[in-house]
C-alpha cells in the first residue's frame, strides 16, 4: 500500500506428528525440546506423542517464490502445502537414531506450511525508516512463540518513544534497497539450513554476495583479502600474502586470520596503511534550522566550521541511541558519519525529530555516493603530502579538523581522524574517483612500504586505545555516564537535548555499574563480547567486546562491572569455552593515542 518491499520469503516448512507413544505417555513431566545440530531438526512432545521438524538442505528445500513475484493467492488463509516425506527422510532416519522410540511410532500427520524468513533468520521488529509511524513485526521463523514478548516490546516502544531494551539485531532498518528479490531468495535457502548449525565468532555467510553495494576499490581488493559483509557492503576483514593460509576457516579459537591481522597492526603502528571505510553511513544536513535540530539531537556541542567531533544521540531515558562523527563543512551545513549497521537506524531517528519539531532542514542520505579511504600510521602524512599542495603539518592541519583538498587531481574532503588511534586521515570522495585516489596513494607510498589493512586490525587497535564501539560498549541498554563517555556529554550546554533531564537524574542518583577495561591471561582464544565475568564463584558482569592486542601481546576486553569491582587492579575471571581465565581491571588506555603521545612529547621538551 505504501510501496515497501520487505526482504522476506515464505519457506515450505514440514513437520511430522506421531500417534501416542507409550514411553512418552508414561512420563510424569513434559520432555524438553531437542535440537540436533548434526541432524538438522527439532523434536518435542506433542500431547502423548512426538512432533519432529527438520530443516532441509538447500538442494531439497522449497521456497514459495511465486508469492513474492506474483503475490499471495487471494483468499489464502490457513491452507497448507502438499507434504513431501521423501525430502525429509534423511533427517527422519537421524532422528530415529537419536530417539529410538520414533522407529515404532505411527505417523498420523505430515504438515507442510509457509513460514516467512528474512535473509539473516532474525525477525524485523520496530519502526521503519521511510514512512512516519510505520511499524513492523514480521519474519518470525519460529511462528507464534515470540508473540507475547514482541507485543510487549512494541507496545512499550510505541507508548514511551524508545525501546524498553536493545534489540538492534532485529531492527527492520538493517535492510535497505540492496536486498533485491534474487538476494532474498539466495539468503533464504542458505539461512534455512542455518537454523541448526554451530554459530562461530566472526561468522560469514556467502550466498547472494556481493550485492550492488561495493565500493570503488572492491575490484582492486577482492582477490587480496577476506571480505566481510556489512549492511550489504563488501569490506576487507584482513589481507593475505603469498604463503598465508587463506580461505574462510571459522573457529572459536585463533585461526588463519590471526597472523595477517598482527602484521597489519604492526603496519599501522610503525608505517602506513590504507583501509576501505566506504560502508560508513553518511548524511548531509543543512538548512535554516540545522543548528537547532542537531543541538536537540546531540548531547555534545556542535563543532565549528571546518572542525569535527564525536557526538551521541540519546533516548528520552538517557540511553545511547547512536554515536555519530559530526563535521561542520560550511556554515549551517553538516556531514554526519555513523557505523555501517546504523545507517537507516540513525536516519529514522533524525527524520522523526525533523517531522515532530517541524525543522526547516534537508537531510540527505549520501552513503552510496561517497567512498571513504582511511590512511593511518606515523608515515601517513609523508605519503599524503606527496599528492597535495596543502600543508598537512600539525600546525596547519590539526587533529579533528576538516578541509577540502585536491588529492592527485581529485576533490577530496579530508578529516584528520583515525579510529585506529594513530596519526591518520579519513578521505571522503565521489565513489567514481575512489579507485584513482587509492592507486595514487599506493604508488606514492612505495618508499614507505604502504599496504592495506582491514577491519579486524582496526578493531584490535581501537580496543587497546580504549575506544568504545556503538552496539557493544554503548547501546539502548546503557547510559553514556556508565559507558565512560562523560567527555562527550555537555550537560551544561544551553540546548535541551533529548535525554538531558534523564542524565541529570542518573548523575544525581549515582551509578551502580561502570564499563571497565580488562586484560586477560589466555592461550589461543580471545574474548569477542558477551562472555560471563566471574568473581568469587558468582557472575558479576559481562564483556562487551574483546580482541588480542598485538602491541602488548595479551587479550583485552571491555566489561560492565558493579562499582565495587571496578577499581584498577581488581582480580576477576572471564569464562571462555567453559574455562575461567584470569583477568584484571586495568587502567585505560593500554596504548596512548597518537595525539596524546604528541602532546606529552611537546610538554617534555625543554
Q: Would you mind describing this structure in some detail?
A:
By secondary structure, the protein is of the alpha+beta class. The chain is 22% helix and 28% strand. The protein has helices at 22-25, 65-69, 89-98, 147-160, 181-193, 218-221, 258-270, 290-297, 343-357, 380-385, 434-444, 455-464, 500-509, 594-604, and strands at residues 9-18, 34-36, 41-46, 49-54, 107-117, 124-127, 135-138, 225-230, 233-239, 273-276, 281-286, 308-314, 320-330, 333-338, 362-365, 370-376, 402-407, 410-415, 424-430, 451-452, 513-520, 532-535, 538-549, 554-562, 571-576, 579-585. It has a 6-stranded mixed beta sheet, sandwiched between helices. A hairpin with a 4-residue loop joins strand 2 and strand 3 (41-46). The longest helix has 15 residues, at 343-357.
What's the helix and strand layout?
Layout: E1 9-18, H1 22-25, E2 34-36, E3 41-46, E4 49-54, H2 65-69, H3 89-98, E5 107-117, E6 124-127, E7 135-138, H4 147-160, H5 181-193, H6 218-221, E8 225-230, E9 233-239, H7 258-270, E10 273-276, E11 281-286, H8 290-297, E12 308-314, E13 320-330, E14 333-338, H9 343-357, E15 362-365, E16 370-376, H10 380-385, E17 402-407, E18 410-415, E19 424-430, H11 434-444, E20 451-452, H12 455-464, H13 500-509, E21 513-520, E22 532-535, E23 538-549, E24 554-562, E25 571-576, E26 579-585, H14 594-604
Parallel strand pairs: 10-20
Antiparallel strand pairs: 1-4, 1-5, 2-3, 3-4, 6-7, 8-9, 10-16, 11-14, 11-15, 12-13, 13-14, 16-19, 17-18, 18-19, 21-24, 21-26, 22-23, 22-25, 23-24, 25-26
Helix pairs in contact: 7-12
Amino acid at each position: 500500500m505504501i510501496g515497501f518491499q520487505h526482504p522476506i520469503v515464505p519457506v515450505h516448512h514440514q513437520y511430522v506428528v506421531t500417534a501416542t507413544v507409550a514411553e512418552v505417555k508414561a512420563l510424569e513431566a513434559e520432555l524438553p525440546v531437542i535440537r540436533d545440530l548434526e541432524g538438522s531438526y527439532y523434536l518435542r512432545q506433542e500431547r502423548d506423542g512426538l512432533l519432529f521438524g527438520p530443516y532441509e538442505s538447500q538442494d531439497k528445500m522449497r521456497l514459495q517464490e511465486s508469492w513474492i513475484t506474483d503475490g499471495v493467492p487471494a483468499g489464502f488463509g490457513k491452507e497448507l502445502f502438499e507434504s513431501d516425506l521423501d525430502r525429509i527422510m534423511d533427517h527422519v532416519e537421524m532422528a530415529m537414531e537419536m530417539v529410538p522410540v520414533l522407529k515404532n511410532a505411527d505417523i498420523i500427520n505430515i504438515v507442510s506450511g509457509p513460514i516467512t524468513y528474512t535473509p539473516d533468520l532474525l525477525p524485523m521488529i520496530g519502526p521503519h525508516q521511510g514512512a512516519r509511524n510505520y511499524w513492523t513485526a514480521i519474519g518470525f521463523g519460529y511462528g507464534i512463540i515470540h508473540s507475547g514478548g514482541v507485543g510487549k516490546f512494541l507496545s512499550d516502544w510505541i507508548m514511551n518513544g524508545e525501546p524498553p531494551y536493545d534489540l538492534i539485531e532485529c531492527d527492520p532498518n538493517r535492510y535497505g534497497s540492496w536486498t533485491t528479490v534474487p538476494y532474498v531468495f539466495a539468503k533464504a535457502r542458505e539461512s534455512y539450513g542455518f537454523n541448526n548449525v554451530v554459530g562461530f565468532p566472526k561468522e560469514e555467510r556467502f550466498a547472494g554476495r556481493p550485492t550492488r553495494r561495493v565500493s570503488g576499490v572492491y575490484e582492486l581488493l577482492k582477490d587480496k583479502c577476506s571480505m566481510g559483509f556489512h549492511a550489504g557492503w563488501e569490506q576487507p576483514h584482513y589481507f593475505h600474502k603469498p604463503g598465508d593460509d587463506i580461505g574462510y576457516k571459522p573457529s572459536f579459537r585463533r585461526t588463519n586470520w590471526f597472523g595477517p591481522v598482527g602484521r597489519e597492526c604492526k603496519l599501522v603502528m610503525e608505517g602506513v596503511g590504507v583501509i576501505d571505510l566506504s560502508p560508513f553511513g553518511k548524511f548531509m544536513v543543512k538548512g535554516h534550522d540545522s543548528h537547532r535540530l542537531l543541538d536537540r539531537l546531540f548531547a555534545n556541542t556542535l563543532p565549528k566550521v571546518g572542525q569535527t567531533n564525536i557526538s551521541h544521540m540519546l533516548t528520552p531515558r538517557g540511553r545511547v541511541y547512536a554515536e555519530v562523527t559530526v563535521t561542520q563543512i560550511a556554515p549551517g551545513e553538516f556531514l554526519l558519519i555513523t557505523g555501517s549497521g546504523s545507517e537507516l537506524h540513525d536516519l529514522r531517528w533524525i527524520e522523526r525529530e525533523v517531522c515532530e519539531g517541524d525543522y526547516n532542514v534537508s537531510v540527505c542520505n549520501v552513503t552510496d555516493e561517497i567512498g571513504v579511504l582511511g590512511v593511518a600510521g606515523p608515515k601517513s602524512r609523508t605519503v599524503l603530502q606527496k599528492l597535495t599542495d596543502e600543508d598537512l603539518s600539525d600546525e596547519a592541519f590539526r587533529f579533528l579538523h576538516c578541509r577540502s583538498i585536491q588529492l592527485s587531481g581529485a576533490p577530496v574532503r579530508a578529516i584528520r581522524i583515525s579510529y585506529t588511534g594513530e596519526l591518520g586521515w579519513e578521505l571522503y570522495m565521489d565513489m567514481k574517483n575512489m579507485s584513482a585516489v587509492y592507486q595514487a596513494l599506493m604508488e606514492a607510498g612505495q618508499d614507505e612500504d604502504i599496504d592495506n589493512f582491514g577491519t579486524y586490525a582496526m578493531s584490535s587497535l581501537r580496543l587497546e586505545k580504549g575506544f568504545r564501539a556503538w552496539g557493544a560498549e554503548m547501546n539502548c541498554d546503557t547510559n553514556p555516564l556508565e559507558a565512560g563517555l562523560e567527555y562527550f556529554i555537555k550537560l551544561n550546554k544551553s540546548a535541551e537535548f533529548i535525554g538531558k533531564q534523564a542524565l541529570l537524574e542518573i548523575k544525581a542518583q549515582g551509578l551502580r555499574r561502570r564499563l571497565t577495561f580488562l586484560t586477560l591471561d589466555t592461550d589461543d582464544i580471545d574474548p569477542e563480547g558477551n562472555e560471563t565475568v566471574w568473581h568469587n564463584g558468582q557472575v558479576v558482569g559481562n564483556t562487551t567486546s574483546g580482541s588480542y592486542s598485538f602491541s602488548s601481546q595479551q587479550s583485552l576486553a571491555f566489561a560492565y562491572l558493579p562499582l565495587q569491582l571496578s577499581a584498577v587492579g581488581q582480580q576477576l575471571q572471564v569464562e571462555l569455552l567453559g574455562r575461567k581465565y584470569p583477568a584484571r581491571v586495568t587502567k585505560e588506555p593500554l596504548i596512548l593515542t597518537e595525539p596524546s603521545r604528541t602532546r606529552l612529547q611537546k610538554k617534555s621538551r625543554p
